Amino acid sequence: MPATVHDWADVAESEPLPGFVGKVLHSDTMSFALWRIRAGSVLPEHSHVHEQVVNMIEGEFELVVDGETLWLGPGMVAAIPSNARHSARALTDCRILDVFQPVREDYRNGLSAAVIGGGRS
Predict the structure, then answer these.
(1) Rounded CA gap, 102 and 93, in Å?
(2) Spatial distance between the Cα atoms of 1 and 119, rounded to a whole number of angstroms
């Protein structure tokens, strides 16, 4: 398959949860979500079958994975295993790139509160 190039500037954004403004792109086997997250915004606990890699671009983020609290800052990366319960809170304004494998088919029709956690609470 030939390489593809996308420009985030051409991707529509939405706010599926208060304070979480995101854009999504997909490859054949992965999904990418670029987030702007306002300080104090909370991601409720959830799980999904997708492995998730959280790439911190800017800000400070508190991530709880299976009961373990992790602090993330710029340049840090956290890998969340498939089906792990996780939640988060933005300690400051943040920019994060999440990578999911396999593809988040539920994200293909856009981001919403109903699908942000894989449909499970």
Answers:
(1) 28
(2) 31
Please, how many CA atoms are within 13 Å of residue 93, restricted to the half-sphere of its CB? 2
The boundaries of the domain holding residue 31 are 27-107
User: Which one-letter amino acid corresponds to residue 17?
Assistant: L
For residue 116, being part of any structural domain is answered with no
CATH number, domain at 34?
A: 2.60.120.10
98 closest CA partner among 41, 114, 111:
111
* Residue 56: strand pairing partners: 96
- Closest by CA position to 104, among listed 40, 33, 46: 33
pLDDT in tens, 65-93: 999 999 999 999 999 999 999 999 999 99
pTM of the model: 0.91
